Amino acid sequence: MMKVLVTVKEVATVEDEFEIEGTAIDERYLGADLNEWDDYAIEEAVQIAEAIGEDEVDVVTVTIGPEDCEQTIRQALAKGADRAIRVWDDTLEDADLLDVGAKTAILEAVVEDEDPDLVLSGVQSGDDSFMATGVSLADAVDFQWAAVVNSLDLDVEGDTASVRRELEGGVEELTDVSLPAVLTIQTGINEPRYASLRGIRMAQRKELTVQRLADLGLDSSVVEGDLRLTGMSVPESESDATVFAGGPEETASELAAILREKGVGQ
Amino acid sequence: MDFGLSDEQRQIREEVRRFAENEIEPVAQEYDVEETFPHDVHEKAAEMGLTGPYIPIEYGGAGYSILDTTLIVEELFAVDPGIALSISASSFGCEAIMEFGTEDQKERFLEPVALGEKISGAAISEPDTGSDVSSVSTTAEKDGDEWVVNGTKMWITNGTVGDFFVVLCKTNPDAEGRYNGFSQIIVESDRDGFSAEKITGKLGIRASDTAELVFDDVRVPEENLVGTRDAAFLQQMQFFDQTRTAVAAQGVGIAKGACEAALEYAQDREQFGKPISEFQAIQHKLADMHTRTEAARMLTYKSAWKVDQGEDITQLASMAKEYASRVAVDVADEAVQIHGGAGYVNDFPVERFYRDAKITQIYEGTTEIQKNIIARELLGKGL
Ligand SMILES: Cc1cc2nc3c(=O)[nH]c(=O)nc-3n(C[C@H](O)[C@H](O)[C@H](O)COP(=O)(O)OP(=O)(O)OC[C@H]3O[C@@H](n4cnc5c(N)ncnc54)[C@H](O)[C@@H]3O)c2cc1C
């Protein structure tokens, strides 16, 4: 039995116009949704299970978050994950900020419990955008890893994941990673499905276990980090729009010149 | 009393809305203008299980209740009624098979519809038979082990795209009483003698297919009879509570879509140096639209919930259908008004809502017929 662990986060979404109160955005402007990158990671895991055989692959999601985010977790279950773990307790509730170190420690404990063959995380979360949790977890549990994966081909027999990953400047790398591994999944790797009505129905009956830090053998020290949120502001935005006039023949080469100059195209 | 939705129901609503915004909204204008059936959207909807959500799980559906189905219909219609109907009515007629069909009929007809492989329809209306359903003149005569169907059906939803239709036929012309002697017979569209001609130029729900069906000595096996011979009228009446509640849900959805569009536009559009939502005249319109939509929604949910409890709710279902359809028409009208000139062209969805809303006052029994029913029930008069 192969096991795929997917890290799933419910992220804060914010309206186009909002107000900041101290170091937080006013509740009125906030919504919640499944982290976009995690949606792709879930889809990838479910596709792996469908390809290999749903009885032979166990897709488990893990979320650090309060009870409110169970609806988002059920969304992952409705899309085909088999069961879910949610880690939360008063210590986590009272923490101002869960930094990458804290998340790594918690997920590390879950990986030790679950012993997965493959861990899929999103490249980043849409709200905090640390872009670090997946890779940091790989380091902690001493798994092989690949970040920003936009294509994945799994060879279960050979215990290898052949991946294509995005580097900077439009360069991509093809590489093999041996299992167990952590892959951080980039959007566009697949086309995430909608949760089907049947899936939603079945998701209500799937197992969702809640674990406290103590259940994972951790204590409150994991939330103590060096990172503090000291301020929040809307970044100055400078608009830099260039309008090309004329037909596609002329404008295409003008556009290409600019892209080349900015280092976007090769 | 509990007015809350379950987590599961909230999840259904959110996922259906997500589907509608991503898959329906971008193509809504195009299908409306082209007046073509949205096969590709129907196919995607089927993958998600939106075709026949109330069909039991053992026949490929999701086994959802009428209240769950109401939530789905509302969300789909809030984005585009034409495409929404193409999806939600793709199982039209199947409710009769579900309730009265044989095991064999359920397997043959329900499953492919739930999976989106087939589309069904219900054929009751005729050129000379609208509100007075008892005047149906399409006949089915028994010849050996076959039924021979002759006649013309009018305004049939899914007429040229449907694979089979549950057709209301006169099977016993000598039956006593206006409501006796009718049967429901399944006619597949690939039978010899069946033809369908698309009706174009509709005011609204133009993505939905509507056609005139002609049955010219169409032979179907006797196993295609649904339920009891000559008892179709009673059978048909059992679904009015359900189908009228479904149209009420369509009305609530249209009103919701129009309300949302109007609220957004009123905050964006500026005149006299401020958003038009600052003007009390506009505020009162918005307040009234949202209040009436919520009232229609409550009436509709209650009606759906009662159907799920197995109660007989002729009067309540008619109230919901009549009121929600009227609210849809009025709210869409006000939404266009709030948009001013921009509401008069199809760049914004309110122009479609305005045209689409009207059908909810016509099909599944007109407004006048619903009021007749409500009054009849109030006054304790029989059929
Ligand atoms: C887009 C579309 C899709 C449709 N889909 C289907 C379908 O899938 N299957 C199907 O079988 N039918 C379908 N219909 C037909 C629809 O159900 C009928 O149009 C409707 O029942 C009204 O019948 P009618 O058009 O003959 O109007 P009529 O019955 O001729 O009514 C004309 C007017 O007279 C009024 N009136 C009639 N009788 C009374 C009375 N006793 N008291 C007071 N007022 C009265 C009506 O309310 C209406 O205002 C569809 C129609 C449309 C336009």
Write down how many β-strands of chain B occur, each being a DSSP E stretch of 2 or more residues: 10
**Count of domain modules of chain A:** 1
Reported for the largest beta sheet of chain B, the result is: 4 strands, mixed
Q: By helix and strand content of chain B, what is the structural category?
A: alpha+beta
Helix count, DSSP H or I runs of 4 or more residues of chain B:
11
Backbone shape of chain B: globular
Radius of gyration of chain B from CA coordinates: 21 Å
In the CATH hierarchy, what is the class of chain A?
Alpha Beta
Any ligands, ions or cofactors bound here, and which? Answer: flavin-adenine dinucleotide
What is the average of the pLDDT values of chain B? 96
For the largest beta-sheet of chain A, the strand count, sense and barrel status come to: 9 strands, mixed
Keywords (chain B): FAD, Flavoprotein, Oxidoreductase
GO molecular function (chain B): acyl-CoA dehydrogenase activity; flavin adenine dinucleotide binding
Family (chain B): Belongs to the acyl-CoA dehydrogenase family.
InterPro entries (chain B): Acyl-CoA_DH_CS, Acyl-CoA_Oxase/DH_mid-dom, Acyl-CoA_Oxase/DH_mid-dom_sf, AcylCo_DH-like_C, AcylCo_DH/oxidase_C, AcylCoA_DH/ox_N, AcylCoA_DH/ox_N_sf, AcylCoA_DH/oxidase_NM_dom_sf
What does this entry look like structurally?
The complex is a heterodimer of chains A (266) and B (383). Chain A has 266 residues and is an alpha/beta fold. Chain A has a single domain (2-223), classed as Rossmann fold. Chain A is 29% helix and 27% strand. Chain A contains seven helices and 13 strands. In chain A, strand 9 (144-155) and strand 10 (160-166) form a beta hairpin. In chain A, helix 2 packs across helix 6 (197-203) and helix 4 (100-114) crosses helix 5. The longest helix of chain A is centred in the first third of the chain and has 17 residues, at 36-52. Chain A is globular. The termini of chain A are far apart. Chain B is of the alpha+beta class and 383 residues long. In chain B, 50% of the residues lie in helices and 15% in strands. In chain B, the strands form three sheets. Chain B has a four-stranded mixed β-sheet. Chain B is globular, with a radius of gyration of 21 Å. The model of chain B has no long low-confidence stretch (mean pLDDT 96). The chains are: A alpha/beta (266), B alpha+beta (383). Bound molecules: flavin-adenine dinucleotide. Flavin-adenine dinucleotide binds at residues 92, 121-125, 130-131, 155-157, 202, 210, 359, 362-363, 366, 368-369, 372 of chain B.
